[in-house]
Design a protein that fits this description.
Distance between the termini: 22 Å
Mean pLDDT: 92
Structural class: alpha+beta
Strand content: 15-25%
Number of domains: 2
Length: 206
């Protein structure tokens, strides 16, 4: 049963990846670059970008991503290239539950994320946590939290991880936040995938 389920899930992913590439077929790569903030080299016919500490290339016109990365990471990048409209970042933050149509899926992610932060991230030292964040391209920030790091998942798609460490009165807590412009770049399903990818890179199975 598990093998059959994995095969079905793989087929579903292949179909989604195919659809994402078809959506981009015929699009002007210069316009895509303008709307996404992703560089496009007209000579090599490749887009280049950084995501979670990795330097990636997306070939044109077939939209194959190299080097190989997590399959959902690939899909999110292609969806971003299709949906991005170039809206400037607001510099204000929201939870997944506040994303458009995110009340259910986003709210569920927020609760699971809070639980993982409390049970797992809070169990490692601040130095180790910082090291893990920096390893995937995080930038340490100052805020009203005890620990804040920004991840630029894609050029116009930053996330902010804020943690408050446990003390004598309160348990550890935290949130993974999106810029309030996020709805202009990805739908809630992809936003949740982004959050899961980051949390899995920090703690393993999410």
């Amino acid at each position: 049963m598990m093998l059959e389920k994995n095969i079905q899930e793989n087929r579903a992913f292949v179909e989604m990846l195919k659809a994402a590439r078809e959506w981009l077929t015929g699009r002007d790569p210069i316009e895509i670059a303008k709307r996404t903030g992703i560089d496009f080299n007209e000579k090599t016919k490749k887009f280049s970008l950084a995501s979670l500490g990795m330097e990636l290339c997306v070939s044109y016109p077939d939209y194959v991503i190299e080097p190989h990365i997590n399959e959902w990471h690939q899909l999110v990048i292609l969806h971003y290239m299709r949906l991005a409209d170039g809206t400037p970042l607001n510099g204000q933050w929201m939870t997944m539950g506040e994303v458009k149509d995110g009340l259910i899926r986003g709210g569920d992610f927020d609760r699971r994320c809070e639980d993982v932060i409390r049970r797992r991230l809070s169990q490692i030292t601040e130095e180790e946590l910082e090291e893990r964040c920096l390893a995937i391209g995080g930038q340490m920030m100052e805020s009203n939290a005890d620990f804040t790091v920004r991840f630029d998942f894609l050029p116009y798609y930053p996330l902010l991880l804020k943690l408050w460490f446990a003390d004598e009165e309160f348990p550890a807590s935290g949130k993974l936040l999106l810029d309030t412009s996020a709805d202009h770049y990805l739908m809630i399903e992809d936003a949740v995938s982004v959050g899961q990818i980051i949390m899995e890179m920090l703690v393993g199975v999410f």
